[in-house]
Amino acid sequence: MFRKLINSRCFKPSLMLMAMAMLFMSFTAPSGTVVLKAGTTVPLSLETTIDGNNVRTGQTVQFRVMQDIKVDGKTIIAAGSFAQGQVVRAEKNGLLGSAGEVEIAVKSVQAVDGTPVYLTNGNVFDEGKNKVVLSVVVTLCCLFGFLIKGGKGEIPAGTQINASVMSNTEINVQ
């Protein structure tokens, strides 16, 4: 009976198909990829105080991720990871009471596998106190009122914001 099976027309093609199936199954690892969905909230905290008088547009600033971001029970972005932001506007406070300004936009953070995750909706803005009216009034009374400076724009360390993931991002997790 075994000999009949071996000599049949279907044996060799069946054997080949089974061998190929085994080969493909043995080299296909279980998928360790998860998708971090667009719009996922990432809570961040500013690492250092940013002062409009001491930074320039384009300068990089650091945020820290405040809690683990998980998908399907797997950590995708670890708490304590650094996120990068960029100063998009910085103006010094000036004479005649003009106020200073500073604005930061959060740009990205790295996932546990090193994949950059781009963020949006994470802008922080501060404007100093405008003292133009005070400066003009004092200037009318005495000549040195023009020396009054406005308030400086300053975002203190520890400021907390929630940024959002910009687009679906595939992350490899083990």
Physical arrangement of strands within the biggest beta sheet: 2-4-7-8-9-12
Percent in helix:
10-25%
Order of helices and strands, N to C? HHEEEEEEEEEEHEEE
Mean pLDDT: 80
Helix count, DSSP H or I runs of 4 or more residues: 3
- Strand content bin: 35-45%
CATH fold topology: Lipocalin
Low-confidence stretches: 26-30
CATH class: Mainly Beta
Q: Specify the overall morphology.
A: rod-shaped
Strand count, sense and barrel status of the largest sheet are: 6 strands, antiparallel, barrel
Rg, please? 30 Å
- The N- to C-terminal Cα distance equals 48 Å
Class by alpha and beta content: alpha+beta
Q: What is the tally of beta strands?
A: 13
CATH hierarchy: architecture: Beta Barrel
- How many domains? The number is 1
Overall description:
- With 174 residues, the protein is an alpha+beta fold.
- The protein has one domain: Lipocalin.
- Helices cover 19% and strands 39% of the residues.
- The chain has three helices and 13 strands; from the N terminus they run H-H-E-E-E-E-E-E-E-E-E-E-H-E-E-E.
- The chain has a six-stranded antiparallel barrel with strand order 2-4-7-8-9-12. A two-stranded antiparallel ribbon has the order 1-13. A two-stranded antiparallel sheet has the order 3-11.
- The protein starts with a helix and ends with a strand.
- About 3% of the residues have low confidence.
